[in-house]
From TrEMBL:
Protein name: Short-chain dehydrogenase
Superkingdom, taxonomy of origin: Bacteria
PANTHER family referenced in this protein's UniProt entry, alphabetically: DEHYDROGENASE/REDUCTASE (SDR FAMILY) MEMBER 4, DEHYDROGENASE_REDUCTASE 4
SMART domains reported in the protein's UniProt record: PKS_KR
Xref: Pfam families: adh_short_C2 (PF13561)
Membrane-crossing residue ranges in chain numbering: none
Length: 259
């Protein structure tokens, strides 16, 4: 049996209309899963789901838009998935926001709350929504996309980094709480990945050159670099892995770099 097979599984991937989330969703389909494509924009979700279904030759992707800032919207999304495909076996919390660049002294309370509500509280909500069904099924897998920013300080994205550190602790805590029900929860901490979300970190040629020099592998990561780890963490191949954070940064942290 293929340890990395996701055949017969239903996976929900937030923030999957582009970037890392889309790469994970596509990899899950390639591994045999059916995937829920979700972001704030229904049209964008439809386009990705249609592309996946056209490529896979079947009804493998379902588009359900929902804002991670609304608990009600997330509950409605989970309900829609249950009605269409049944219980969710795999949850990937990839969607996040960072509305502020600058020192912590300048961030507004509203911006700080938005970072934590979208990047931490929404993940808590989603885990709480899907875990009862996973427990009844005898287990499941949850993956939270964090960041290597959660390991370092920053004078420009401090609140974001703090939220990503909180995500790693959320993973550790839920691993303890949910492990007895067969539910595994882990995090992935990417470095700089070539996505629209991280564009400000590499769009200047000089900045990209500096990032390459700081990375032992000598390049910025691509969304596909994250997808393989996400398949591993959702599959039987990681059957005894929980509460962990896998760093995927091309070696930046081992050289002492950060964001």
């Amino acid at each position: 049996m293929d340890l990395f097979s996701l055949e017969g599984k239903v996976a929900l991937v937030t923030g999957s209309s582009r970037g890392i989330g889309r790469a994970i969703a596509e990899a899950y389909v390639d591994a045999g899963a059916r995937v829920v494509i979700s972001s704030r924009n229904q049209t964008a979700c439809d386009e990705v789901a249609d592309a996946i279904n056209a490529r896979s030759g079947g009804n493998r992707a379902l588009a359900v838009a929902a804002s991670i800032s609304s608990k009600f919207a997330l509950e409605e999304m989970i309900s829609a998935v249950r009605s269409h495909w049944g219980a969710i076996d795999i949850l990937v919390c990839n969607a996040a926001s960072n509305p502020f660049y600058g020192p912590m002294a300048a961030i507004s309370d509203e911006q700080f709350r938005k970072v934590f509500e979208n990047n931490v509280l929404a993940n808590h909500w989603l885990a709480s929504m899907v875990s009862p069904d996973m427990a009844r099924a005898g287990g499941g897998a949850i993956v939270i996309v964090s960041s290597i920013g959660g390991f370092v300080g920053s004078d420009t994205i401090g609140a974001y980094n703090i939220s990503k550190a909180a995500d790693m602790q959320l993973v550790r805590n839920l691993a303890v709480e949910l492990g007895g029900q067969g539910i595994r929860i882990n995090a992935i901490a990417p470095g700089v990945i070539r996505t629209d979300f991280a564009k400000a970190l590499y769009e200047n040629p000089e900045t990209e050159a500096a990032l390459r020099r700081a990375t032992p592998l000598g390049r910025i990561g691509e969304p596909a670099d994250i997808a393989g780890a996400a398949v591993f963490l959702a599959s039987r191949a990681s059957g005894h892995v929980t509460g962990q954070t896998i760093i995927i940064d091309g070696g930046v942290l081992v050289r002492g770099g950060g964001l």
